[in-house]
Write a structure and sequence with these properties.
Blueprint (H helix, E strand, L loop, with lengths): L22 H13 L2 H8 L3 H15 L4 E4 L2 E4 L1 H22 L11 E6 L2 H6 L1 H11 L3 E6 L5 H7 L4 E4 L8 E9 L1 E5 L10 H4 L2 H6 L1 E5 L5 H10 L5 E6 L5 H6 L4 E5 H11 L2 E4 L7 E8 L6 H17 L4
Parallel strand pairs: 3-4, 3-5, 8-9, 8-10
Antiparallel strand pairs: 1-2, 5-12, 6-12, 7-10, 7-11
């Protein structure tokens, strides 16, 4: 709603004495127009009749018009009041909307779509649990999984995205963040790998790691940490397959003798669903923290605060390695 100003003009030649009207006077004008009664208006406003009479006198002076004329049918509006009432009610409605803008978000009745930007790993590890919870407590709320890309910061600032989840250290100035869980690194293989059995003490070490063939994941917010660790330690891998993400990884590991090095949360999730073997990572790789990020513009938005609270409750408490 565009800003609207009600201003009283006094007849002083061409001079205009600008006098902003008190909101309580606008409410009085609205009540008198609706009830045609000073007494009922006073009751509706919670004021005494003398007080309302004083307010009406002030209103008449500011607007330089009788506004209401007492008749046998009650307080009838003048043509000036008829002309003003629509604008007065529009202003009061706008003020009411402003006062309600900070109202609490009620998930049980809300009709709202949240766009949460995340990696494809989070599609597997976090999104199913989040969707299940939201469907149970907020049946009118829909979710959209957005991408993490170069436009992420602008999308969060503009409100085109509500939240981002991942390892996103470049989101700093103007953004809030909350740690959800820490990540380290593991390796995954086929449970029936022909050269790696359950005796990890003798069959799994850095030499075996370098001798085996690997799958490399070329995207994701943590892969650069892995590449940097390999380069700094002068460790090479024989990469036979490179994937842009985790889609299809478990199916390929289940049918080959390849090895994958990946963050623990996605790795253990894939291992549980596909019966893969989890191995400790034989080289030191810096860990990282998965966080949720949001722009400062939406720090106090009740709907966004609710969604952030849901993510914190679900993922801070239930993460495999908090």
């Amino acid at each position: 709603m565009s800003a609207i100003h009600i201003i009283a003009y006094h007849n002083k030649g061409m001079d205009k004495d600008l006098a902003p009207l008190d909101v309580k006077l606008l409410r009085l004008l609205d009540q008198l127009y609706a009830t045609r009664s000073v007494t009922r208006s006073a009751e509706a406003l919670g004021q005494s009749q003398p007080t309302v009479s004083i307010w009406l006198a002030r209103l008449r002076k500011q607007l330089n018009d009788p506004l209401f004329v007492r008749t046998a049918e009650g307080m009838l509006p003048t043509p000036r009041t008829d002309a003003l009432i629509a604008t007065v009610r529009e202003v009061l409605t706008g003020l009411q909307r402003l006062s309600e803008s900070g109202a609490a978000f009620d998930p049980s009745t809300a009709q709202r779509r949240f766009r949460i930007c995340m990696t494809d790993a989070s599609h597997i590890t976090l999104l199913p649990r989040l969707l299940s919870h939201v469907r149970a407590v907020a049946p009118g709320v829909a979710l959209e999984a957005g991408r993490i890309d170069a436009e992420l910061a602008q999308a969060l600032q503009a409100g085109d995205a509500d939240l981002a989840i991942g390892y996103l250290p470049w989101l700093d100035t103007g953004f809030y963040q909350q740690t959800l869980y820490a990540q380290d690194w593991i390796c995954l293989t086929n449970a029936r790998h022909p050269r790696i059995n359950s005796d990890l003490a003798t069959d799994w070490n850095l030499g075996v790691y370098q001798a085996e063939a690997h799958i490399a994941i070329s995207s994701g917010t943590g892969h650069q940490l892995l590449d940097n660790a390999l380069a700094s330690q002068h460790i090479t891998r024989r990469v036979l397959l490179e994937l842009p993400g985790f889609l299809g990884l478990s199916a390929i590991l289940s049918t080959t003798d390849l090895v994958a090095t990946l963050p623990r949360h996605i790795g253990e999730t894939l291992a549980r669903t596909a019966g893969l073997r989890v191995l400790p990572c034989p080289l030191p790789i810096p860990g990282f923290t998965v966080k949720q990020y949001w722009h400062a513009r939406y720090q106090h938005d009740s709907a966004c605060r609710w969604m952030r609270g849901v993510c914190a409750e679900l993922f801070m408490k239930n993460a495999s390695h908090p």
